Amino acid sequence: MPTFEGLAPAPTNFFMTIRDVAYWVRSARADARLDRLSQEGQAGSAFDDLYADTHDPFGVELPQYRYQQRKYACLLSMLPNRRYRNILDIGCGLGTFTRKLAPFGERVLGTDISGEAIRQATRLSAGHPNVSYLQRDMLEAAPQESAYDLIIIADTLYYVKSRSPAALKLFAGKIASILTPDGLVLVVNHYFFGIDLASRETRGIHDAFRSASGLDCMAEFRRAFFLATLLQRAAS
Q1: Any idea of the CA torsion for 70, 149, 9, 194, to the nearest 10 degrees?
Q2: In a structure prediction context, what are the per-residue pLDDT tens digits for the chain, which is 236 residues long?
Q3: Is it true that domain 82-233 has CATH number 3.40.50.450?
Q4: Are strands 179-190 and 105-112 parallel, antiparallel or unpaired?
């Protein structure tokens, strides 16, 4: 299996504060409301309603929650230290992590199913001229006219209704097809205790990417409450 040289080690002193418990409560309430809204209509409109009702429903922009900021720093440390030409952030929400990617890429594109989230992300990113946004269902992957040397899929795949191994492998194949020959994809999802339902679903998502044709697994990191898998487009 190919490996990277100079891959920065992920921080090990990663922890939550007592205040961060409120972050998880807020996130759980947002997911519960999203479930109710999704039962009433399409996924895109449900996310639109969620973001319209509360500017930051998941609390990712709130500075008092240190967990999410430490998580972003941890994810950045997992990436090879190089300059990227085209970065794609799928399921970008308010573009919080998208903006953190801006210093590392010539062009950064965030996509999300919610037009309301995209409008807010565009406003919040006014000071980042190399960052742009596009409303798009994640299953459509990305504009086919572009090739990306880094794709981020973080905390979003568990919102897809069809998460069968076959469907996930098909999606992973689409992702591989829009990568440059040495392009990378970082897949990130919640991971708690391993035996709980959320962790088992995450393990299934990551295993589907690891076994998909067109991608080689380079490294995998388990940290506090999330799992991250770094893959590279397979040599043809």
Answers
A1: 70
A2: 333 333 444 555 556 778 888 998 999 999 999 888 888 766 668 999 999 988 899 999 998 888 888 899 999 999 998 999 999 999 999 999 999 999 999 999 999 999 999 999 999 999 999 999 999 987 775 555 569 999 999 999 988 877 888 999 999 999 999 999 999 999 999 988 878 888 899 999 999 999 998 999 999 998 888 999 999 998 86
A3: no
A4: unpaired
Q: List the structure tokens of 154.
A: 């973080």
Q: How far apart are CA 211 and CA 88, in angstroms?
A: 22
The answer to whether the beta carbons of residues 108 and 101 sit under 8 Å apart is yes
Residues 6+ apart with CB under 8 A from 219: 3, 4, 7, 78, 229, 230
**Structural domain boundaries of the chain?**
82-233
Closest CA to 155 of 200, 182, 186: 186
d(CA 170, CA 173): 5
Residue 137 parent element (H or E): none
The tokens describing 38, both together, are 């999704």
Please answer whether residues 128 and 102 qualify as being in contact, where contact means their C-beta atoms are separated by less than 8 angstroms: yes
Q: State the amino acid at position 143 in one-letter form.
A: P
- pTM, two decimal places: 0.89
Map tokens 């309301």 to a residue: 116
